[in-house]
Amino acid sequence: MGTEIFQTIRRDSVISFPFLGLELDPPSYFTLFGKNIYFYGVIIAVGFLLAILYCAKNSKHFGIEEDDVYDVIIWLIPLSIIGARAYFVLFRLDEYLAEPSKIFAIREGGLAIYGGVIVGVLTAILVCRHKKIPFAAMLDLLIYGLLIGQIIGRWGNFMNREAFGAQTEIFCRMGLTSPGGETIYVHPTFLYESLWNVMGFVILTVFRRKGLRRYDGQCTLLYFFIYGLGRAWIEGLRTDSLYIGHTDIRVSQALSIVMVLVSGILLFVQSKREHKPMFCDRRSSDAS
């Protein structure tokens, strides 16, 4: 079923949401100086920018200097993009070996969040160690930026007519009408994940503002637990999942389940320990 859908859908397909009475035909790109600029890349860039601004403005709540945030981000963003692309390409290696020129065509789509997170964490570890910045506290701060990037970035998938789910008649289904007039209705999984991340951002923001954060790394573990739960469910609906070899195991779904289990165990273990008051706990809990 997934293959049939991909053969039908194009980037000029008309998008509709019957339950809202909406029919949209957004362009996937615009032309500037003779170059096609894809909205996917523009939206990702906007997500990064807002994430940086949020992290810089709220760094004081985590005992982090604003300059330290920029020191980490200047390395983290480009390397995370490389990691996200490398992860995506790795699990579709046969396809990209057949057309190597497409490996670097990230403006057209093809970034895997888990690849970006893995490389981002490793980058943050190295920079924080070099700059003597508290790594766990920095990670707690960056998680909020990551959620902002994910919330906004998923709309790049909307513009590209990608990252949708299997065919369905669910009330919130999304219609995709090809230029030939054929319409299929699918799960708008990009929307599910964007809204799930909005919920995660709200939960973590309330968690911090209420002074419930007891130790560095706690927000990070909560993010992995919350995001993993949602991604494990949503990934099962998608038609463009990356698989492990020739198995039926979806890479992101497997990672999500592992992430939920590990973070859940660590949250439980840490809840049984005594923790010293932190810098951010001694400050006013006023939100920015």
Report the principal-axis shape: globular
| Rg for CA atoms | 20 Å
Q: How much is the average pLDDT?
A: 89
Order of helices and strands: HEEEEHHHHHEEHHH
Number of helices: 9
- Helical residue percent? 55-70%
Q: List how many beta strands DSSP finds.
A: 6
Strand content: 5-15%
Structure classification: alpha+beta
Largest sheet: 4 strands, antiparallel
Uncertain stretches of 5 or more adjacent residues: 280-288
What's a concise summary of this model?
The chain has 288 residues and is an alpha+beta fold.
What can you tell me about this protein's structure?
The chain is of the alpha+beta class. It has nine helices and six strands, in the order H-E-E-E-E-H-H-H-H-H-E-E-H-H-H. It has helices at 2-8, 39-58, 66-90, 93-98, 113-131, 135-160, 189-209, 218-235, 251-271; strands at residues 14-17, 22-24, 29-32, 35-38, 174-177, 183-186. The strands form two sheets. It has a four-stranded antiparallel sheet, with no helix packed on it. A hairpin with a 2-residue loop joins strand 3 (29-32) and strand 4. Helix 2 (39-58) runs antiparallel to helix 3, helix 5 runs antiparallel to helix 6 (135-160) and helix 8 packs antiparallel against helix 9 (251-271). The longest helix has 26 residues, at 135-160. The radius of gyration is 20 Å and the shape is globular. The N and C termini lie far apart (47 Å). 39% of the residues are buried. Residues 280-288 have low confidence and may be disordered.
